[in-house]
Amino acid sequence: MEAYLQGSFGQIVLGPDVVTIGCALDNRLVVNNPIASSHHAHIRPEGDGYRLTDLGSTNGTFVNEQPVNPHFPYLLQAGDRIRIGDMTFLYETGRPEFQTPFAQETGYKDTPTAKVQAIGFRAFSQSEQFGDQPPTPYFTSTQVQPISPTFEQPQTASLAMDNAHGTNMVMPPQPYESTSTQSQPSQPKSNKWLKVLLLGLAIILVLGAIGGGITTYMLTRPKPVMTVTSDFLVGLTPAGSTGTVLHISAHNFSGSSAIIFLLDNQPIASNQHITSDTNGNVKADLAITSGWAVGNHILTAKDASGYTTKVGKPVAIVEQGQAQTPGPNGAPSDDTSFSLVVTVRFQDAGTGKQMDPFSETLVITEKPDSSGGTVCQSYDDGKPNSISQTADNGVPIQITAVFSCSGTYKEGQLSYIETATSLKISSTNGVSCVARTPFVYQKLVGSFINHSIINGTASGDSVTFDCSLGINTQLNARKGSWTGQLS
After folding, report:
1. What is the pLDDT of residues 313-331, one digit of tens each?
2. Contact (Cβ atoms closer than 8 angstroms) between residue 238 and residue 232
3. Rounded to an integer, what distance in angstroms lies between the CA atom of residue 483 and that of residue 344?
4. What is the average pLDDT across 205-213?
5. Distance CA 255, CA 447 (A)
6. I want to staple 423 with a disulfide (CB 3.0 to 4.6 A). Which of 8, 27, 234, 401 is the partner?
7. Is 422 helix (H, G, I), strand (E, B) or coil?
8. Rg of the chain's alpha carbons, rounded to an integer?
9. Nearest 5°: CA angle at 172, between 171 and 175?
10. How many helices (H) and strands (E) does the chain have?
């Protein structure tokens, strides 16, 4: 591809060699400017185009007033304006002799202004280019009339004074012509309107050159397009929470460029380094972190040259566990029903004596995101349930109890309270005891440590039993731990 740089220095045609730029004299393009580094940047052919690379300069390299990432090749497009220090160059493609020259001079902190000047128009001859007009003939071929014989009056050369300028001019003898046969000479036509037309045409051509350059720039500049999908939805909007990802697919970015993502036009802090490929395409999973505020947002992206997706994509950020996203540490989502097989280990809170562990099954039933799931056991139904056991002294006993429950599961956290509303113990030796109810039989609180294991603390109230034969007995409060696993 034919390309060149245009600046106040003239034109440099880009060929197969690297064009080095800087203030050092060994550069191919020497920028005599204190703001430019000695070896500031270079332009290298690559594929079907040319790439500009900033070589770690002190004051940076700018394309269309956007900074270029140091040591990161930037694919130049026709019409790109490259600024190094106070000097700006225009990158163009095609044959240099058909392009409009470009010159720009700015102060270091001024907003650069491109000045485009036309240097010639091929529509005219060489003399017309410099403002000369072809001579207007005194007579046209159709104006020439046969001249009748003339009779010269004998005259001598006379001397006349040009009163306007004070110069002497010799007036030659004038022939005597018959008025009946001699046509009067026509006066030279005024070229005022011709000059106006030429000036107007020059302005049109200059504006056309500028407009053509702008049109080419607008048509060739990158126009990034992005799509966003997710494994989770809020309605039809892609959603996510901390620890999940958004699937990004995009194209038309600058080639091999760092991509910056913006949430509501604010850059997202991320440790990820996502770049486009050489063709400007992006395929990546964008991780959602705790720095993303919960709520509805618009996601956009831009490359290192400042080219930004014009149409933002709506995304919803939710609390962990909502919208079927995993809870903390990969715990089940809030709106999922599941069961836990739980082992409880109690000890007497007063004496520290370890009690026999027991197992049970907790049932978590899904509810809307805002409330979380409920937690109960199958026999926490308010109906009498009986079990047979053996007392410490070896005497068989039967326990009949009525239990109710309350509990919640949300964002990986579980709380379960089982309350005894009636409890009676009967033995085969005729002794029976009735508990003073209600009391908390057990309270379990815990959180998931990974996607399937949960643990926490356990406790239970002290309770007094009124027994037959006028005997009362006291059961101390209990404390301990518990572990559960998804069944």
Report:
1. 999 999 999 999 999 999 9
2. yes
3. 7
4. 58
5. 46
6. 401
7. strand
8. 47
9. 125
10. 2, 36
DSSP, res 96: G
Q: Are 380 and 361 in contact (CB under 8 A)?
A: no
CA angle 343, 348, 350 (to 5 degrees): 155
Q: Which two tokens stand for residue 108?
A: 């270091």
Q: Residue 105: pLDDT above 90?
A: no
DSSP 129: H
DSSP-H helix ranges across 221-355: none
Which residue's entry shows tokens 């700006």?
88
- Smallest Cα–Cα separation from 277: which of 81, 77, 75, 79? 75
How far is the C-alpha of 139 from the C-alpha of 254, rounded, in Å? 66
Type and span of the H or E element at 193? helix 192-220
64 touches 75 (CB < 8 A): no
Evaluate if residue 140 carries a pLDDT over 90. Answer: no
- Give the separation between CA 181 and CA 150, rounded to whole angstroms: 10
Residue type, 372: G
Token pair belonging to 238: 């892609």
Half-sphere exposure of 310 (CA within 13 A, CB side): 4
Least Cα distance to 224 among 286, 305, 314 occurs for 305
Distance in angstroms (rounded) separating the CA atoms of residues 206 and 102: 12
Strand order in the sheet with 282-287: 225-229, 245-251, 282-287
Residue 189: count other Cβ atoms within 10 Å of its Cβ: 10
Q: Give the three-class secondary structure for 208.
A: helix
Cα separation, 202 vs 121, whole angstroms: 8
30 φ/ψ angles, rounded to the nearest 5 degrees: -90, 125
Separation of alpha carbons 29 and 27, rounded Å: 5
The answer to whether the CB of 90 falls within 8 A of the CB of 5 is yes
The DSSP output letter for 308 is: B
Distance CA(218)–CA(220), nearest Å, equals 6
d(CA 5, CA 186): 53
Report residue 327 as tokens. 């809870």
pLDDT band at 170 (very low <50, low <70, confident <90, very high): very low
Residue 74 is given by DSSP the state: E
Phi-psi region of 367 (alpha: psi -120 to 50; beta: other; left: phi over 0): beta
Residue 279 has pLDDT above 60, yes or no: yes
Among 338, 378, 334, 337, smallest CA distance to 360 is for 378
Asked if 93 and 1 touch (Cβ cutoff 8 Å), the reply is yes
Determine the straight-line distance between the first and last CA of the chain, rounded to whole angstroms: 66
CA 467/CA 312 separation, integer angstroms: 74
**Residues 6 or more apart whose Cβ sits within 8 Å of residue 336:** 324, 364, 366, 373
